[in-house]
Amino acid sequence: MNFDQSYNRHEFVSFLRQDFLPEDDFIQEETPVAFPIQTQYCYEVTRLGSSKSLDLDVYEIRHHSKSDARVGMSKEAFRLLYAEGKQCALVIFVPEDSTDNYRFSFIEITLHQDEDSSRVKKTYSNPRRYSYYLGKGIACYTPNKYLNETGRVTSIEDLRNRFSVEVLTKSFYQELSDWYAWVVKIIRFPNKLNDPADDDKFNAESTIRLVTRLIFVWFLKQKNLIPNEFFDRDYIKDNLLEDFNPEYNPSLFYNAGESKYYKAILQNLFFAMLNSPITKEGETELSERHFRKNRGDYDNNKLMRYESLFTDPQLFVNLANRTVPFLNGGLFDCLDDKDADNYIDGFSDRKEVQESLFVPDYIFFAKEVIVDLSHWYEDKKKKKVKVSGILNILKRYNFTIEENTPFDQEVSLDPELLGKVFENLLASYNPETQTTARKQTGSFYTPREIVQYMVDESLVAHLKRTVGEDLEPEYRKLVAYTDEESNLTDEQKHQIMEAIYNCKVLDPACGSGAFPVGMLQQMVHILNRIDPTNDNWKKMLIDNAVKESRNAFQADTDEERNARLKDIEDSFNESLNNPDYARKLYLIENCIYGVDIQSIAIQISKLRFFISLVVDQLTNNDPVKNFGIRPLPNLEAKFVAANTLIPLTKNEGELGRTPAVIAIENNLKEANHKIFRAKSVKTKRRWKDRLKELRKELATQLANDGFLSADAANQLASWDMFDQNASASFFDAEWMFGVKEGFDIVIGNPPYIQLQANNGELADLYCDYGYKTFIRTGDIYCLFYERGWQVLKKDGCLCFITSNKWMRANYGEKTRSFFAKYTNPQILIDFSGIDIFKSATVVTNILLFTRSKNQGCTFCVAANNQQKKCINNLYAFVYKNRYIQNLSTSEGWIILTPSELAIKQKIIKAGTPLKDWNIQIYRGILTGYNDAFIISTEKRDEILINCKTTDEYTRTLKLIQPILRGKDIRKYGYDWAGLWIINVHNGIKGKLEGIHIEDYPAIKNYLDKYIEKLSKRLDQGDTPYNLRNCAYLTDFSKPKVIYPETTKGARFAYDETGIYIDKTCFMLISDSALYLQKTLSSKLFEVAYNKMFSSVELVNHTYQYNKHA
């Protein structure tokens, strides 16, 4: 089947029968089907056949949607399936005006049976549509791979996988990851010219920035806003660049001449064309885009460079002026700081900058290269990996500029890809240390189904608070993607619209923008449900604009007021934009905020919001009108790079509420709106300067009034929202966003990083800010919970997905106490049996609370290993399986059914707590460097052979003792692996003298091989050769129960031989050790401990059996 050809019914049915559906199973027909409802888009349905084994029908739907209204057509198709009594179908969507392009979709719904009969209810839920976009001009790689080459479908599950966006994204990312691993060690950016060492330090971030910019441009290409010629190797070689030969030709010496494509094409596209108006303001001549001519243009990054590299420079300019719009928004501002000689992007004609920039042409155009990536992946199987240039990778896949939702997904790469690419590439980049591993940054990309659920629940909670709790069933209809009619009055719809418009939403660790984008999508969806024509939304915005323009603090001129009203009219003009554009634009301006400590994350969040606006603008061919693209808003006052956890230090009392301060604050708030709306370079510069003035005025006034210290005032005055390279050391919502009363919703997936990591660096940073949840052994996400609570409005709601360790772990006691005392927990979902983050070693939960009094009524649910698919319809799962619990203490928050809770209470009443059994529990030996101190039998024998005297041999033999690891311990016993510990102990003060290494020459000679690493380790005694202090050293010789810290089942062994254990084990000392070992090894204890008490579940269904549990 040729998927890059126009649709032909006969050919497509033949493909289904002969190649795709189960053999001899497809019954062909051509039966007209009447639509069960009045439709807006679909006008003709034909049943083309059915598959008996799959219980699936095939339909062809003809539609007359001009703007490809995916959501509207999906709803009509879902309704068709319901009327036909089918839960799944294959549907071909064909537009009426042309068969050149069409969609091939797999559609599913869940039909509900009446409880009292076999009659189907008049409702359905969990609708899903997955589509391939086929026809002329599409990339065939993906449909060929999953529809042609994989053979016939064997089951419905197989069919789902063929239409899986997740499978596609994984395939794309693997190719991109291999490319990144290849080029990150090749390319170089200048950075600070006088510091060659910083190239490696910042190279990873520069590579990630290049990838995300290029992918963003690729999305623009889907709107025909970027010339295809810019990515056509042969065209560039024949028409644009001198001596262009992008074949793979690695060299030991960097040759700047090999970076022609990046410099001449991409840099000029990024920093000059997309960042520069085509005409002067108010004029029609295409004069603004040209090459830099003289030194007077030295610092003008909006002018093109490298004219000498072009065969025909004017052709390049003409190609751009034919399709490339001015985007505004600071989106492609060059990040070079020329005054400081810091060339992050390297967009310069300076010789030393060009010589320091190396982005070879072959990384874009190489057809296929075999490279060794084994060191990068730490995998010997990666010695021979096929990689190709990134443009060749991008050309293999279809891209869609419209964001997918959990309910309607095109089997193409959508803008969410920007977020996934960023978060996954972040696995190789730690912004603090520039070292490797995602777990160090704590970043995990949240699946869109989880985002959708958390967004829905947060919005429902917000509407219940602001409009009324009694309308919750109606709110549920609004957030759903079914066609169930609401029973809202016009007045109630207006109240909901106002509640949405006034809703302030913050993601305090927004990363690449998954939650802010998800929130925007769902707010747009709700507005579409209550105001499909946009009339009421438009009227409300105009009324607000008129009201605000009369505000004494704004003093808008008639010209400014009229310009703003015209701007609103243009936003709603459906000859210029799709209806969703006006919804998105004003929701972004008024509702959505994001903070992240990484400036590159903020840039990517902005990219996704820009794409969401571009997708709903109707393009034209007129460069004077910027090809129909309204210059994008400036999001500097919406997304900021800052440390959320460090508040601005203020003196007692409110933030200086004197009349002078209030006036400045109101002016600042209005200036933020003016910056957001500024569309010309001149206007933006004027308001940018005005904001700086106001910041200084406010800082001075607050310092003079005594509300801020001089240092804090300086922080306020010096913070520059327009510096894309900087991340503020503090966060203040009022100062940065103009949000005084707090946020209605705080939502997100904060990082997971232990505060004691990196020698307690984070613990030292945050210990003095008064966090009630702070404990040095805790995790940073606990502080984010409290910080989120701090910035909430009274009764506002917070919804986070985090590690679930706080629920039971000892370090979570302060966090549980904080929740119990200061919040009203409403929903708690424990994913203890499900790996939400596929590549992350973390078990998660979702908590939604409000900043209000604890009512002792929390809907709780725990998902086990058999319920992995629950995230596909999480609301239904929670509704069906929830239990109400009173979570009002700092004890472990364990989710139990009523019967389990009753059993637990009986156990507690009848039993004696383990702590009252006169026991001691100790961890095994911490060496600080096991490779040196824990040795094999062969190494032990070698050391003993090297002893010079019988006396030394005897001392050494006694010092080297057998040791167990956690994995050696079994239930009721252990399998010793022949390992020994060199017990160079540090002694016990007053009881046992420490070991002097000079008395053990053979051991010293052996340890000297590791002396450099031994000297640097934290866990050491008086000398690098000694182990750290261990006050219970002599207890290892006592009868004891030993057990691993992490295990899938209860594995307790009894020992009286005096064997040692390492840090992955614990030992229990008691006169009743043998009795306790038998009890603790029982299935009864295992079930009770794992299910009802304070065990901590880890990934792969293992549990933590530590002394604190």
Automatic annotation (TrEMBL):
Keywords: Coiled coil, DNA-binding, Methyltransferase, Restriction system, S-adenosyl-L-methionine, Transferase
Highest taxon of source: Bacteria
Keyword Ribonucleoprotein attributed: no
Protein name stated in the entry: site-specific DNA-methyltransferase (adenine-specific)
InterPro entries from the UniProt entry: DNA_methylase_N6_adenine_CS, MethylTrfase_TaqI-like_dom, N4_N6_ade-DNA_methylase, SAM-dependent_MTases_sf, TaqI_C
Lineage start: Bacteria, Pseudomonadati, Bacteroidota, Bacteroidia, Bacteroidales
Domain TaqI-like C-terminal specificity positions: 962-1097
Organism: Candidatus Bacteroides avicola
One BP annotation, GO: DNA restriction-modification system
Coiled coil residues, start to end: 677-704
Type II methyltransferase M.TaqI-like domain sequence ranges: 590-837
Top EC class for this record: transferase
Record's keyword annotation contains Nucleotidyltransferase: no
GO MF: DNA binding; site-specific DNA-methyltransferase (adenine-specific) activity
Enzyme Commission no: 2.1.1.72
Catalytic reaction list: a 2'-deoxyadenosine in DNA + S-adenosyl-L-methionine = an N(6)-methyl-2'-deoxyadenosine in DNA + S-adenosyl-L-homocysteine + H(+)
